[in-house]
Amino acid sequence: MSKRKPGFGKQLAELHRWNGWIVSLLAVTGLLLPWDEVRGWLDGHFRQPVKQLHIILGVLSGVLLLLYFPLMKRHLKQIRQRPKQKGNLSFVIALLIGWLLSGIVLWQLRSFPPSWANGALLVHDLFTYVGVPYIVYHSITRTRWMKKPERRTVRTTEEETESRLATSPAVAAHYEPTPLINRRQFLKWSLGATLAIAVAPSFFRWLNQATGGAISDVPGGMKEVSDSSNRMLPNPTPLPDSVNVVGGGAKGYFRVYTVTPLPSFDSATWRFTINGLVDRPVTWTWEQFLALARDVQVSDFHCVTGWSVYKNTWEGIPLSALLKQAGVKANAKNVKFYSGDGEYTDTLTLEQANMDDVMVAVLHDGKPIHRDYGGPARLIVPQMYAYKSVKWLNGIELIDKEHIGYWEARGYDTDAWVKT
Asked: Cα–Cα distance between 15 and 355 in angstroms, integer?
């Protein structure tokens, strides 16, 4: 005997159940990836598996949408007299499609121009801020406990109530006014208010950054440099082009991602070294480093997670000038960079390191680079994704072999060129 095909209602129920689980897991994995409090632990061990799981779940979510579309016409016909259900369905489908399309761009970001990825990340973020609280609210309010019937006072018109009270003293003796809201409504409103209060601060902070400070008049870009964890004095004296910010100022905002504890710096102990396969190993103090000739350039900054900051005015020492001063030996093939956090390293080939726009920057838009953004000195490689632009740079070594950098060891490509 052939098995009977599941009924329409059962098919919808199965799709709804699977979609609920997949969206829940997508929310968990998606929120873990950028969460500062777990980034160090996650990036050191499980970031790539979590990222791959997130991608797989996103693909499965797309498959469920494809399975639903043949049933959609009949489903809409079934709920045509239920405006709330139709509204919920439309909203959830828009969420899923928005997440799916923007997620595909972020997944295949190396195949798209940076502006596509930047836009996709903003859409993905916005849908997450709106969609996750909505889905949590919808899921909880649809539980049996929330839908459980309860004893309610029957509502009557004001005239009917007065008539009953006047004609029946017994009714009047036991009459209790109908409450303005019932228990279920109270719980739903309380849950909605709680979710809104929980999400609002981070949402408005994100919105303010995404709009370049349009809400609170605080511009994007970087924080000021002076604080107790970054005692680097004197501050660099900017060149005229930095003072005038020839690029017009950074367009966008930097997202602070760190996988190690933020290091602290003091100009009394800070040192910058170049060694390895060089003719003249050298070590500079902070004041000596600031005395080196600097250039100013305008370039874009692209993170491999999708966001970009455009038209940055950087001031610093061209890397080619530093290598020339140290004298590169003939057998040197790669340039290895060391971060002041003691963990992060990366490499460029000699040819890449000598590109005109690669520099060790000490100023951004005419101001010292804050510690949170890689200061007091950081590498800038504009034509590659930012994991090549080593933060807190304080050491360079010339080597004759390949080196697997921090992110490359965790699955990132050694070839980090940005698509133009």
From this structure: 53
**Which range marks the domain in which residue 13 is found?**
8-142
pLDDT, position 144: 64
Q: Where are the beta strands (DSSP E) in 237-358?
A: 265-266, 271-276, 282-285, 295-302, 308-318, 334-339, 345-349
What local confidence, expressed as pLDDT, does residue 37 receive?
64
Q: Write the single-letter amino acid at 179.
A: P
Angle made by CA atoms 73, 26, 82, in degrees to the nearest 5: 30
CA-wise closest residue to 323 among 360, 362, 378, 270? 360
> How far, in Å, are 5, 14, 100 from residue 75 at the CA level?
17, 14, 22
Q: What's 116's domain CATH number?
A: 1.20.950.20
Q: Does 101 reside within a domain?
A: yes
Q: Beta-carbon neighbour count of residue 202 at 10 Å?
A: 10
Q: Which residues pair with 383 in a beta bridge?
A: none
User: What pTM was estimated for this model as a whole?
Assistant: 0.79
Q: How many domains does the chain have?
A: 2
Q: What is the distance between the alpha carbons of residues 372 and 263, in angstroms, rounded to a whole number?
A: 9
Last residue of a domain, one of 142, 173, 196: 142
Question: How far, in Å, CA of 305 to CA of 117, rounded?
Answer: 8
Closest CA to 65 of 107, 30, 100, 91: 100
Which pLDDT tens digit goes with each residue over 99-151? 999 999 999 988 888 989 999 999 999 999 898 888 888 777 766 665 664 44
Q: What is the chain's alpha carbon radius of gyration, rounded to the nearest angstrom? A: 29
Q: Using 50 as the pLDDT threshold, list the residues of the chain that sit under it.
A: 1-2, 149-157, 165, 171-172, 175, 214-220, 226
Cβ atoms 109, 304 nearer than 8 A = yes
Q: Is residue 205 part of a domain?
A: no
Residue 415 pLDDT: 86
Give CA–CA dist 394/271, Å, rounded.
Answer: 7
